[in-house]
Amino acid sequence: MGWFIDHPGDLEIVKEIENPELPDRLVAIVATAFLDERLKSRIEGWLVADRDAARKLTKPSGPLGSFGPRVDVGYSLGMYGKVVRDDLLKVGELRNAFAHSASKVTFEGNEIKSKVEELRLINEVAHNGWLYGGRTITESIMVGGPELVPGTYRGRFLTTVRLLFVCVSLQGPQRPSPPTI
Q1: Across the chain, which distance is largest between two alpha carbons, in Å?
Q2: How far apart are CA 15 and CA 21, in angstroms?
Q3: Tell me: the pLDDT tens digits for 108-161?
Q4: By C-alpha distance, which of 117, 114, 145, 118 is closest to 131?
Q5: What angle do CA 148, 82, 120 make, to 5 degrees?
Q6: Cα separation of 49 and 27, whole Å?
């Protein structure tokens, strides 16, 4: 299963994330940052068409300036369900475990392995298959089966991030019209 690429610079980021030589710490941080940027852009697409107002909300010091609040708002807007929300939050926790440790952290460490094992979307898709039904056939995706689940914790993390990226990416703007007065 690949990434849902719709911006020119995305391919370079994907190549970096998928590079087997990239240390685990950087994989976790860069993959989550990539997912966070996509979530931010999709949420902005659901806001009233006032770029300045949207940027105030999503700038780093704004109420939607970090990953956790964005995840909660996306869920509250109905962009995705609880399993996706919970896995987005878990990916954020994994990112923090890598980013805020001065010690060497890898996907094979016990703390990280146990967090990766808590990710649910990859298991749902592997066991039940998954169909995202879009408005047109080109917006629908079906993935699934046991072959989806890699044998490494790093692979499970990256596959989950890919699935989450697709879930978030397929949410087109539902922007309301601005009030007239």
Answers
A1: 57
A2: 11
A3: 999 999 999 999 998 887 776 665 554 443 444 555 555 667 889 999 999 999
A4: 145
A5: 30
A6: 34
